[in-house]
Amino acid sequence: MARPPLTDDELIARYGPHLNEAPPGGWNAGIEVDRVVKTHCCFCGQQCGIKLKVHDNAVVGFEPWYEFPFNEGKLCPKGVKRYLQGSHPDRLLHPMERDPAAPGGFRQTSWDHALERVVAEIRRIQAEHGDDAFAMLSGVSLTNEKSYLVGKFARLALHTANLDYNGRFCMVSAGTGNKKALGIDRAPNPWSDIPLADVVWVAGANVAETFPITTSYIWRARDRGAKLIVQDPRVVPLARTADLFLPVRPGTDSALFGAVLHVLIERGWLDHEFIDAHTVGFDEAAAAVADMTPAWAADITGVPAARIEEAAEWWGTAATGMMLHARGIEQHTKGVDNVLAAINLGLATGKFGKPGCGVSTITGQGNGQGGREHGHKCDQLPGNRDISNPDHRAAVAAVWGCDEADIPGKGMPAEEIIEAIHDGRIKGLLSICFNPLVSAPDANFTREALDKLEFYTVIDFFLSESAQHADVVLPGSLHEEDEGTSTSGEGRIIKINAAVTPPGEARRDWEILVDIARRLGKGDLFSYANTEQIFDELCRASHGGTADYTGATWQRIEDEMGLFWPIPEPGHPGTPRLHEGGRFAHPDGKARFHPVPFKPSAEVVDDDYPLLLTTGRVVSQYLSGTQTRRIAALVAQYPRPLCEMHPRLADTIGVVDGDLVTVTSRRGSMTLPAHVVTTIRPDTVFIPYHWPGAQAANQLTNRAVDPLAKMPEFKVTAVRVERAGGRGATTDTRDLGLHEASS
Ligand SMILES: Nc1nc2c(c(=O)[nH]1)N[C@H]1C(S)=C(S)[C@@H](COP(=O)(O)OP(=O)(O)OC[C@H]3O[C@@H](n4cnc5c(=O)[nH]c(N)nc54)[C@H](O)[C@@H]3O)O[C@H]1N2
Ligand SMILES: Nc1nc2c(c(=O)[nH]1)N[C@H]1C(S)=C(S)[C@@H](COP(=O)(O)OP(=O)(O)OC[C@H]3O[C@@H](n4cnc5c(=O)[nH]c(N)nc54)[C@H](O)[C@@H]3O)O[C@H]1N2
Ligand code: SF4
Ligand SMILES: [Mo]
Predict the structure, then answer these.
(1) Rounded mean pLDDT of 671-691?
(2) pLDDT per residue as tens digits for the range 608-661
(3) Which protein residues have their CB within 5 A of the ion that is ligand 4?
(4) Residue 13's pLDDT band (boundaries 50, 70, 90)?
(5) Strand bridging mode 227-231 / 669-676
């Protein structure tokens, strides 16, 4: 069962007697409030509970929701400002059609005209070039209901195989690794296990900035005396409090994990009973690390051998331990290898299926977990089923009321869809909740691709940079304008409640898709009266899959403040901790070790490109920035991308903090201010990727993908960094007009 919400007394014991006292001026501080709606944050995969204040069909503020057990009222800077989006003047209020003569390049049009045009273009392109020439890209900020609907819509209404989602750029290496090793793709533990761990090992996750609420779980473990290991090329804020810091060179994590397994074996820090009873493949995994000594790994990773041995000792001798990893080890051409190598360490020491034990990815996007379960991946059907498996297809066809043969087969993953657009195999695109022009690697290539489309339509609530290349833009719904469910990084299904209705002529996303399906003549397959009916169908379609929601209902989710899947039958209490008793989700119940030899990244440094660029995030901006770049207080915190570099590197190229530098890769170059910090490896620079155009880090990144997960290598690009314009060039960043407009 989920941990019950804290009682008032427990809350007061934890946070002090002032907890429920209104701040000076009262909770509403002069604003009029009609009602307060309990819901969740629209941003990251932590899915913090929040209460939104509503006046006159507008969200006017928020209150902490102390009783929600995950975050107990805590929120990060993005969570407390999210309510400002709905009233932003850029909010799309009407369907729009490209018109070069109109101001801004678009003119307002009617829903009827816009949707008839969309349907006519889908029909034309599919008649001329085949069904799969019209593709769809989707995103996992969408609720479970919308993710499920998109999967069914693309397969049965568009009848295209080519649907994929933005988790392809996010969590897919972890998902692929989890399925291979553990047979199921979900965090093995609820977050309440973190404080029970004696060792917490954070690998490639900037927890304090990207999953701020997780920091408090880690601190609770530390309050009990747990040791903290952080593995990152940067001394990220969490690393400043770590007991052991592993300053790994980008792209070399599998060498580090391999050396740790090598030491565990050599020193006998293994759980043989667990390995024998609950796993297969140990010998092959052990053989692969036979030569991976700490000294060998020290050369490759840049982490001293003694620190690698110490990490192995702490992990191997601790009774309990949790490893948390995120994009730092996953966004690589060997992202799956890295995840498998991390899981090997958990299996070798028996750290699964027990309180305070587990190796877990931290889910990124709001519904990054649910969004990777319900069938809008190119190879997936609901319940995290396999679209190529005849039994899985038959099970879903029975719920959809169609022939199994009506469901198209496996389609292209997201980056391949962009490449197929570029080379003319795909001619039409519908995208919802995805801004590839900012978030896909090699932005110049992505722009060329979008401009080659014969027809492009976008469902969004802001005119994203990608939408600016569309022929028709359909105004969809903000998080607070629709209801549904989402599944947090813990595997906890939670209820999103609508606070307001969509403004102007904007519509709920699901209603737009259902309308298009109806106009395509497939209305009978999409006859939902409300979102709850979509959820009920999703639960039926998931029955018997690994991501089994059978026993979930909206009412239960609300009443129990979340339910952990699998919930295989009505009344089932849910499953906060997976693998208890050493049972894994493969048919034989055993987990798989995998041999992981070390492979270099797709790009390695050379004389022309001697430095490693890694990209990622800052606390105040979110993803492609379409939402957070419109919130002034967040923009003020970090207004433009900066190139983080070590003082030794800055000295070498002759710049000081704030000077402009030009960073060049094999694909492009950008000029931005240097941010000189001692908290980064001297051979590595870091640029956050939340900005478009000339400020986009993805001008530089590489399209090479992981062979299994098809995840692009966002974390390793070979670059050179020079003082912009040579010596004596301008150092005043205002000259470049880098500051983004914001509300
Ligand atoms: N503020 C904020 N929070 C967010 C988001 C956001 O955009 N902004 N996005 C959400 C989403 S969708 C996601 S996916 C998550 C991402 O969350 P994280 O994965 O924590 O974020 P990143 O900044 O992409 O990368 C994490 C760390 O990986 C390190 N790193 C880079 N290369 C390597 C490497 O080769 N090995 C190792 N070990 N580390 C490396 C970087 O220095 C960085 O500190 O955050 C979620 N939360
Ligand atoms: N260089 C580099 N690139 C990266 C990464 C990196 O670390 N480095 N990280 C990658 C990762 S982890 C991720 S998750 C991707 C994210 O990449 P994207 O998914 O492209 O980023 P978002 O900003 O979430 O874009 C989503 C779009 O959907 C809209 N949107 C949000 N919610 C909704 C909704 O409910 N309905 C509708 N209709 N629209 C909605 C937003 O306004 C926005 O325009 O970026 C990836 N790209
Ligand atoms: S930690 Fe994530 S879910 Fe919580 S408030 Fe911040 S962005 Fe929102
Ligand atoms: Mo992500």
Answers:
(1) 98
(2) 999 999 999 999 999 999 999 999 999 999 999 999 999 999 999 999 999 999
(3) 170, 364-365
(4) low
(5) unpaired
**pTM for the structure as a whole:** 0.95
Q: Which ligand is nearest to the CA of 466?
A: 2
Question: Which residue, judged by its Cα, is nearest atom 5 of ligand 3?
Answer: 79
The ligand 1 atom nearest the CA atom of 231: 38
Judged against a pLDDT cut of 70, whether residue 730 lies above it is answered with no
Take atom 14 of ligand 1 and give the residue whose Cα is closest. 364
Please name each of the domains of the chain with its CATH number. 8-87 (3.30.200.210), 96-170+369-569 (3.40.50.740), 173-361 (3.40.228.10), 611-740 (2.40.40.20)
- Say which residues have a Cβ less than 8 Å from residue 328's Cβ, sequence separation at least 6: 203, 204, 205, 206, 231, 232, 253, 614, 616, 715
CB 405 within 8 A of CB 432: no
CB atoms within 10 A of CB 121: 20
Residue 329 in contact with ligand 1 by CB distance below 6 A? yes
Q: Kindly report the protein residue whose alpha carbon is nearest to atom 15 of ligand 1.
A: 364
State residue 376's pLDDT score: 93
Rounded distance from Cα 362 to ligand 3 centre (Å): 13
CA distance 241 to 222: 10
* C-alpha separations of 589 from 52, 311, 365, 543, 574 in Å: 44, 30, 30, 19, 19
To the nearest whole number, what is the mean pLDDT of the chain? 94
Q: Which two tokens stand for residue 718?
A: 């070979």
Q: Which residues contact 464 (CB under 8 A, 6 or more apart)?
A: 435, 437, 438, 458, 624, 626
